[in-house]
Amino acid sequence: MVTVKRQRKRSLVNPRGRQVIVALSALLALAVIAGAIALVALMRLNSRMEDLNGYIAKSIRTDINQAIQCYDTLERKGDDAAADALGSMKRYMYSAYGMNRLLIEARGERYALLDASAYNSFQTAVGEYERLLANGQATGTTRATLGDCVKSLRAMLSARFDESDNLLPQ
């Protein structure tokens, strides 16, 4: 019997198994890279959503401030400019309420600036004021009610935005 001594030890690893391990390692590396890319994209999307939500909140605040300025015009000029001021107030508040619904859908109920009862009471006061004005009746009590609505809107705006102009949740 002839025995031959080998220079190198014999490899007991199956070459097919090595190929499977290399392939699985490559797939794992691709999965990690894809996960990292997806995470970065998700963070960018979240940042964009935050920017958009901030823009919507500032738009709501601008519309409410415009309605308040129209009320101030109404206070200064009286019933002479009431029809134009009331129409503008209604448009600004409708715009603010519509944007508020978008903000609620995007961020949730905690970030709502206008609730339905405040909006409805404002619209009721403006409608009553318009009715009294069209009939030529005294508008003093309705103007006081509208003034209360405007005061509550001013208080809400000052409480809901911080010093860096960001919307605070309730």
Radius of gyration: 33 Å
Overall pLDDT confidence: 87
| Gross morphology | rod-shaped
What portion of the residues fall into strands of 2 or more residues? under 5%
Largest sheet: none
Beta strand count: 0
- Fraction of residues in helices? over 70%
Please report the number of helical segments: 4
Class by helix and strand content? mainly alpha
Order of helices and strands: HHHH
- List unreliable stretches of 5+ residues: none
First-last Cα distance: 92 Å
Which oligomeric form is depicted?
single chain
Task: Offer a few descriptive terms.
170 residues; mainly alpha
Map the helices and strands:
Blueprint: H1 15-77, H2 82-107, H3 116-135, H4 140-160
Descriptive overview:
With 170 residues, the chain is mostly helical. The protein contains four helices and no strands.
Q: Can you describe this structure in just a few lines?
A:
Helix content is 76%, strand content 0%.
